Amino acid sequence: MGVPLKTGGLFARSLVMGLALIAASCQSSDNPTRDVPDMAKPPVVRESELRAYCPGVSLREGTSYFSTYAKGGDGDATKVIYQASLSDTTRACTYEGDNVTIKVAAAGKVVPGPAVRPGTITMPIRVAVVRGSEVLYSKLHQQQVPVSDTTAATQFMFTDADITIPMPPQRNVSIFIGFDEGAKK
């Protein structure tokens, strides 16, 4: 026992609209190459690149969040200018000769506090590449984020694409990203 279809109902109108869209997309054009998808060759990935080692990246414990206070307001919740956090991290490696170049990235968010004003804020983000206790790379970045809406969070992406190290003979290299406030005054 089937369900009768009403020709004046929502189903019929949807069917007519769908058929009209299909007919419109089948019309020919004056430019025959306009509708042809881009058939660019995909990049060739060598087997050595598939087997190559790309060190993992993570947030260093205790450095994934950062708070800034108005002058003299450290620890006072009413004096918070903003709070920032870093979350998801990723990396990509390219290989040339005996070196590996690593591009790392982290997603971040800035949440305005009671003392925020519109403008650009600067956050200290450090990237460190280590093998045991040996530091292979360390750089402090000054990440700038424009904050125009003082009532909502602002998302940002942090990227460091300038990491080049010798290809590690063992898979024992780690990459860390985190806020670095420096030595306490």
UniProtKB/TrEMBL annotation:
| Keywords, sorted A to Z | Signal
* The keyword Signal is assigned to this record: yes
Q: Where is the signal peptide?
A: 1-28
Q: What is this protein called?
A: Lipoprotein
Q: Which organism is it from?
A: Tianweitania populi
Q: What is the lineage of its organism?
A: Bacteria, Pseudomonadati, Pseudomonadota, Alphaproteobacteria, Hyphomicrobiales
